[in-house]
Task: structure prediction
Amino acid sequence: MDRKNAWNTYTSEQLTELNSINEKYKSCLNAGKTERECVELAVSMAEEAGYRNLKDVLAAGGSIKTGDKVYAVCMDKMIALFRIGEEPISAGMNILGAHIDSPRIDVKQNPLYENEGLAYLDTHYYGGIKKYQWVAQPLSLHGVIAKKDGTAVKVSVGEDENDPVFVITDLLVHLAQEQMEKKASKVIEGEKLDLLIGNRPAEEVIEELTSADAAGDTKERKAEKTQAKEAIKANILRILKEKYDMEEEDFLSAELEIVPAGKARDCGFDRSMILSYGQDDRVCAFTSLFAMLDITEAKRTGCCLLVDKEEIGSVGATGMHSKFFENTVAELIALTEGESDLKVRRALMNSRMLSSDVSAAYDPMYAEAFEKRSSAFFGGGITFNKFTGSRGKSGSNDANAEYIASLRKAMDDENVAYQFAELGRVDLGGGGTIAYIMANYGMEVIDSGVAVLNMHAPYEVTSKADVYEAVKGYRAFLKM
Result:
């Protein structure tokens, strides 16, 4: 089939809207580098658009009617937004579902240590990464420190130009002959991904050792004492105490994530692409959110669902396998149609969903990994994957032909550029999304999203045209 490049179709007005959407998207990428930050940003944007917290509605004994807009949050890492349509919720919803977690490196619960004059944080990587891609580049630290008194302190270090940054070191090439003979999966081991955070001893330890010199200590003895007192670790703890009122034991109840430092940037002389961390899957999450906030009325209830933990199997209380979404729908049914387990099940079964997740963009530098006729291309528009999974479609949701036909019509009616693709060669690998989980309810689900180069790398690439077409496509879906 003939592939059209969306860039060749735009009017000057559309190019203005395209640029506006992509500037907004880059700002969201900069503000939302973790799932907590994404939820905080989504809540702020939703409330500005007139959405109310469902918890407040329930606490006030309020009601929900056609046209109302509400949201619900789970543990600050998962959010569902609803705009109530003309039809009963039990008749089904149009759901945009995306995930807001991305591959990264997490700080362990007993992380801080000193080794030969350097201070480190011990780490554990999260999601599927090529470990060698994370060394020798500036990194930032984001998260929250929860304390026993019930307070929580937000952490974000390394994004402001005046902030320090951190690094995971690599072996210099002059001594790397043996390292470079290893398989790529072994070049950097998981236990060597520790974050370098300091080198300077605490001043009080230095003063103590200086006074000890007067008593006749040798330089060797002074060095032994410095190491014994872990003076560099002590200095890090002093800094953490001053900045966050944090004790070492507070690491036990902290969630700290290591991500690349720096902002989303235009890519290419023509500024046609975006280079940034975390575009899998925030390129679909933020475009879904934009579309959700743009739609003011529709016959069916619209929903934007942004979830956590997809990169590790959608598990846990904030992953798609949790009952959070189902419970929230039950609350809405109770407020609008009366409490009914049957109507909740009908609402879920009668719904339609776009599992908004990224697809692999065709990369001519690695053409051998793709089947060209079934690949997604930059500038081709929003990508639909009838199925994902691996090899024999293992672990896949496989969308119904009738549902796909209705989506084609909706996209064509709204002049949305779209393409259909698979994730690489049949026997080579594959991937998964949250689609199969929601399909368990019996609803119609298909994967749709934006094609990405460098997927799961610290910096990923998208086409601005595809970001724009994703917003248009998600708007069209919500109006179906």
Remarks:
- The radius of gyration is 25 Å.
- The chain has a mean pLDDT of 93.
- The first strand starts at residue 52 and ends at 53.
